[in-house]
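Incident log entry.

Two folding requests arrived from the same account within the same minute. Monitoring flagged them as a possible duplicate submission, but the sequences differ. Recording both here for audit purposes.

Request one:
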Amino acid sequence: MIKAAIDIGTNSVRLLLCELSGDKIVWKEKKLEMTRIGKDVDATKALDGKRMTDTVNALKAYKGILLENGLTTCPVFATSAVRDASNRIEFVNLVKLETGFDIQVITGVEEANLGFMGVALGAGSDANTFLVVDIGGGSTELIVGTRDGKVLFAHSLDIGAVRMTDRHALKHESGQVEFEPVRTDVDRGIDSIMEELGKFEIGACIGIGGTITTLGAMDLKMDEYDADRIQNHKLSRRTISGLADRLIRASLDEKLLMTGLMPKRADIIAAGATVMDEIMQKLSIEEVAVSDYDNLEGAIFKELLTCN
């Protein structure tokens, strides 16, 4: 049985196509278009017209892929940028008119729950209780749960790779001083939930989203992204710190030559890496496992559970 789901994120629009055998994913393929619909939303609170058009065009292409695979529609959800935008209804109506898709604009907690479901039911963890960190373009979700899929705590912070880059006007060839405001934002966000997080014995940390999969691909020196190789790849705090520092100091030309880094992510990856680095330092996390399973798989599993 072929299933699909679409995620309209702050930085990219992603399509998951997968084949199910029972309640297991036995084959999957992800497609990605970086339309960066969330550019400047932190400041303007509105979606840019051209970026809305670019996103609609990506969705039209995905609609064609669905039809080629015998599907007429699928779950389509939008996250941080769209939910923050004052003109989100205009965008939702435009997508409906142009593609027929009914977009669900989900809350930060709903986004967190989908991400955890994708990890817990898709890839799992050996730890009884684990933390999932999902660094996106506009927000970062932290979720604590059990390996049987039960969410114990979920929180969404308005901190993401695009949002931090825009908010603090981050540039290439910078230093740690210029990125200190990012760490301050992370610290403030973590401080607000530290008491709740402290109630749990966390046995492992799993990272999802474009920032951590990119850092994993860079560490593995991937010429071409490989979901199987990235899955469960371990990154130490020292490795994350080293990558963050290297990305902060690098010029755009240097970043474009880095194996594993997609060119369209070059201007925001330093911010994302800094967010991950600061979370690990703040929570004394020594190692994070990378997961390609994320909120897209979570949407598939949610649909299955709803149908059953």
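Request two (distinct sequence, not a duplicate):
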Amino acid sequence: EEAEEEGEAQERLLQHLMVHTGRDLPQCHLEQDWDVLGELGSGSYGRVVLAQPRDGGAPVVLKLLQKDRTGRWGFLREFCTHLCLRGQLTCLQVLPLAFETPTHFGFAQEHAPAGDLCGLLTPGVGLPEPQVKRVAAQVGAALDYLHSHALVHRDVKLDNVLAFDPQCRLVKLGDFGLTRVMGWQVGPTCGSGHAPYAAPELCHLRMAETLRLEPSLDTWAFGILLFALLTGTFPWGTAASCDPQFGEFQVWQDCPWQPGGLTCGGGKVPRAWRELGEAALEMLRRLLRLEPDRRSHAGEVNRYLHRCWG
């Protein structure tokens, strides 16, 4: 009940910010007002560019959302969610600059020079353990901050964690376009662009069914992200029983934890997991509990930072 009240209060704050921001949204022409220095990324949503104001000033990153793909209210929600998170330095910060052009909505955000984690990751290898631990601590802090403010990110993945240096001494969680308050009803996402990060309770939803949004969905995706960073691969294609690798994980996860050795209460540690150390296995098992209400919170990874993960 308390979490529900917090979610309702957060939604009221967001709605207030959205109305206020939408009322004063300035019109501009991108080519006339900005000198685009280069493209940093693109997708079905639009594109992200590095640009400099033509009337002077330092270069900034502009996220440009196509109006035919993103409605005005959706754009305002993403920008205002960013504004609500300006107190947390492990969340990508926006500048107080939002605008619209004839074809796009746009806002300015800080530049992460090293790009996203996908660009730093070596496929099939992963990242060195010290870097993974730095990412774990910082993304865990970002998620705990979101969840303490009754928000669920809903799109935790390698592409949405941005690095400010190749050693990951500073990384930030970004892209809050899908972020919603706790208690929001969401439909199935498994099989879309969210797999293999989608939790099993999402993958099991039928088309007409919905699920109450909880932080445990982020926790699951965070566990998948850490596995990918440690191994350079995903543990499965989709968290559904039809996936053999997930089926093998289910058998192991259902067994009681017994440290030391490849078996766990009679269930073998899945082959893809056997290069990981005892601490990493225990941590990931807790993040990836099959029962959502038994998953650890994201910040609990800090308990494992002093132990070897390999």
